[in-house]
């Protein structure tokens, strides 16, 4: 992704659901951002003890998907998952106040880059709901979309600003409900393209089901484990770095 680091300021912060904190960030350096960047991700350089860190080498960074871009000033809206996972990003989001300074790097490219296919399967949770929102807006109007998002409560359902149908699965056992969702898929002549961004273990299991049971080539599957059950965000980041070094 682009390594441009931008100074930003918290313009507003609001808890919009039991598990989502919506924070709007503004900056004079956001003037190049447009609605085309909705669904792209940025790296948030989390402040340390209230002090912004602008150094990519030392900062604690987390990826977040752009939920909205203000047309007039380029301000970006990000949704932070709270009250579910522990870590510096969650702690910062819950305590953030208007006027707080931080740094943003990016935006980076969208994970999904094929927008001419006839059929897509989108699978996510609250960490990736805005990526799905961005893709739904960009996919062909005539394409078939099977979209499934799991959330812990009905109160966590948010608008995706689209008329396309999205199935929300309210569950505390997403490994069961998301697997069941795949059984509802109808016959397709051409293997669909899949985007999924979920808990790492669930991504592994669903990817196996898609390839083994539904005969979808691995090249058609764009998958990311945004978090991992049993690990806080910092330890999961360290585990992924270690896996890359030994791969």
Short description:
The protein has five helices and eleven strands, in the order E-E-E-E-E-H-E-E-H-E-E-H-E-H-E-H.
Q: In angstroms, what is the radius of gyration?
A: 18 Å
Major sheet summary line: 6 strands, antiparallel, barrel
Q: What is the approximate shape?
A: globular
Please report the number of helical segments: 5
Q: Give a count of the beta strands, DSSP E runs of length 2 or more.
A: 11
- Distance linking N and C termini: 21 Å
- Beta-strand portion reads 25-35%
The low-pLDDT segments are none
**Secondary structural class:** alpha/beta
Describe this structure in words.
This protein has 247 residues and is an alpha/beta fold. It has 5 helices and 11 strands; from the N terminus they run E-E-E-E-E-H-E-E-H-E-E-H-E-H-E-H. The protein has helices at residues 88-95, 129-138, 174-182, 200-212, 233-246; strands at residues 5-17, 20-26, 41-46, 60-69, 76-81, 101-108, 119-124, 144-151, 167-170, 193-199, 221-227. The strands form 2 sheets. It has a 6-stranded antiparallel barrel. A 5-stranded parallel beta sheet has the order 9-8-7-10-11, sandwiched between helices. Strand 7, helix 2 (129-138) and strand 8 (144-151) form a beta-alpha-beta unit. It starts with a strand and ends with a helix. The relative contact order is 0.15.
Protein traits:
247 residues; alpha/beta; six-stranded antiparallel β-barrel; five-stranded parallel sheet; 5 helices; FNR_nucleotide-bd; Riboflavin_synthase-like_b-brl; SIP_FAD-bd; Siderophore-interacting protein
């Amino acid at each position: 992704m682009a390594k441009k680091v931008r100074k930003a300021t918290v313009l507003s912060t609001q808890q919009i659901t039991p598990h989502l904190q919506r924070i709007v960030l503004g900056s004079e350096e956001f003037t190049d951002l447009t609605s085309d960047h909705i669904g792209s991700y940025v790296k948030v350089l989390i402040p340390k003890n209230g002090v912004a860190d602008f150094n990519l080498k030392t900062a604690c960074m987390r990826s977040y998907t752009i939920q909205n871009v203000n047309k007039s000033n380029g301000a970006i809206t990000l949704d932070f998952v709270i009250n579910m996972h522990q870590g510096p990003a969650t702690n910062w989001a819950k305590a953030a106040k208007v006027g707080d300074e931080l740094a943003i790097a990016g935006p980076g490219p969208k994970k999904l880059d094929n927008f001419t296919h006839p059929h897509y399967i989108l699978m996510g949770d609250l960490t990736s709901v805005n990526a799905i929102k961005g893709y739904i807006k960009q996919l062909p109007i005539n394409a078939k979309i099977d979209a499934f998002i799991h959330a812990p409560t009905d109160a966590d359902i948010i608008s995706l600003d689209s008329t396309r149908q999205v199935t929300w699965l309210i569950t505390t056992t997403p490994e069961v409900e998301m697997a069941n969702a795949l059984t509802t898929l109808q016959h397709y002549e051409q293997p669909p393209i899949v985007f999924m961004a979920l808990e790492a273990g669930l991504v592994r299991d669903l990817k196996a089901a898609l390839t083994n049971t539904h005969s979808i080539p691995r090249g058609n599957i764009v998958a990311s484990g945004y978090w991992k059950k049993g690990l806080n965000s910092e330890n999961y980041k360290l585990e992924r770095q270690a896996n890359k070094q030994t791969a």
